[in-house]
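Example 3.2
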Amino acid sequence: MLCFQEHISKLEFTLRAYNLSDSMELISSFGQQSDLHSKSLKRLALVVSLTLLSMPVLAFKYIDYVSRSRSSENISEEVSLNKQLAYRVDLFLSVHPYSKPLALLVATLLLICLGGLALFGVKDDSLAECLWLSWTYVADSGNHTDSEKIGERLVSVSISFGGMLIFAMMLGLVSDAISEKFDSLRKGRSKVVEQNHTLILGWSDKLGSLLNQLAIANESLGGGIVVVMAERDKEEMELDIAKMEFNFKGTSVICRSGSPLILADLKKVSVSKARAIIVLAEDGNADQSDARALRTVLSLTGVKEGLRGHIVVELSDLDNEVLVKLVGGDLVETVVAHDVIGRLMIQCARQPGLAQIWEDILGFENCEFYIKRWSQLDGMHFEDVLISYPDAIPCGIKVASLGGKIILNPDDSYVLQEGDEVLVIAEDDDTYAPAPLPTVKEASFIHIARTARKPQKILLCGWRRDIDDMLVVLDAFLAPGSELWMFNEVAEKEREKKLIDGGLDISRLVNITLVNREGNAVIRRHLESLPLQSFDSILILADESVEDSAIQADSRSLATLLLIRDIQAKRLPMVTHVQRGSFSQGSWIGEMQQASDKSVIISEILDPRTKNLLSMSRISDYVLSNELVSMALAMVAEDRQINDVLEELFAEEGNELQIRQADLYLREGEELSFYEVLLRARQRREVMIGYRLADAERAVINPPSKSERRRWSVKDVFVVIAEKE
């Protein structure tokens, strides 16, 4: 029994040894199979990565082959395959803004995946570890230095080389994006994020004066924002503005490149949030300039967000004003530059010295028009309102019961009602306020009848496109029997045709007789054929042939002025008088100054620099065209209601600025306050706004210390607003 058990134990031991041997053989067999499978998988990964890497090359080669084969078969109507592919890629990159970064991201992921597969084929690491190593090689080309095997080094170097290309393209994209952004800022393509700003559309010679006036107007507010948009390079605009020699007084000027005819460009300058929009007339042909202004108004009215402010349009021809107002409606205020200057020249020819007064009133440097409501004045007569402002001159009423109509120089008996506003001339809108009525002594009135209008002899040198409108205004202003001599290079027959085409019926001119003379105003012998010493007034116009160039037009006007004055000085008798300024009696300027005392010459000046020459010599009362138009544009932009005031002051009927001799109101040496003289003027239905002393160069508008008495001379003159004679 014992032997049997031992035999069984041996058999069990033998069986266990046999089973263990079989297990080891099975494990060894499975390990060998697993290694074979891993190696085959790595080989497959390496083959797949190489295949994927070579597929783009093969595809490009195939496309090139197909394109060549098609071209060899003369299939001209079909576009080659490679061109179609290039077009599709170009279209994708141009249509989709983020296509380039997206393509770079896809290329980076492909490089990491292909590199990971290739590493998995040459290394013993897992696929996840190989993908991570591939990313490190892409991000840092120095991470492959610890590779030992040849295969690992080749793959890692290839991945690192691809990574360098990826990061080079990434740097290129970033650099291009930054350069494009800076270029966009430099060229003025970014949007203006402002509101309640003044927007100027266009560019012309008037821009400098306009910016100066807007800067002065905003000075009391600490400065404002002015945005200029024109079809010019932003850097050029900023450079030209920097060259302007005036102080912006805290006002910021922002330039943008763009077209006012494109809604996207208008939105770029926040047109819907601007408090005023000024459309400048282009230099050049008047009809083309006004046509462009009309298209600009159409674009502005098409803004979906609507406009917060009003539109001030500068026009070149009066005939186009009706069309622009028809298109713009209540949003538009127009300033017809040629018409304003023509009427102003006529007024200045009749009243020497008026140009300086208009400069003071239109410009923001001194006193200008303001409209404001004062409830404490309700129920007061206008006569009392006149002396209620120590620092302003009331000259009109905005009547609420008449729909806001402005009445200049109203009756003394008019009583201010609730809602009425007072039109005044003051230094600024915050420098005046009504005060208790002062005690004004009633001064006896000297009734001196004004002399009746006498026929005048006036010479027009030059030709303007709106000269027919000037003739109509002259016929309304001048006394019957007056003569108007027209001297220019336009042939007489062509001259009559142009006047008729302009809408002028010569037979309806009742007060003036036209005398036509043909000649060149800068040739002395042509001028000497005229009786220059016999004219009461001479108007030198910026000739139509050179008005596109301010310097040429001013040079021509200045040459004509000097020639006329020299001819007058030779023909007029020499009179000994006190020398004027620093020029001696015997000098050529002294002789011309003597001639200037005998007749009035009004020169239309376009360039402000010419102003200094004329003001220094004192041989002409000048009109500074561009600057006065800029002043009017700025004033209407600040308050559109002022345009109604200016239109009446320039019109043939209604009220106008006039210069009166002092002997109409006082005696020689009489001592009166300004308020007392003002009340005497009211008896003539006039609003007195200032004076000019006999020994003074400039008039004083809205004088201070109006209650202070002073001694006057009959050689003094007063500036009034009165009905046209």
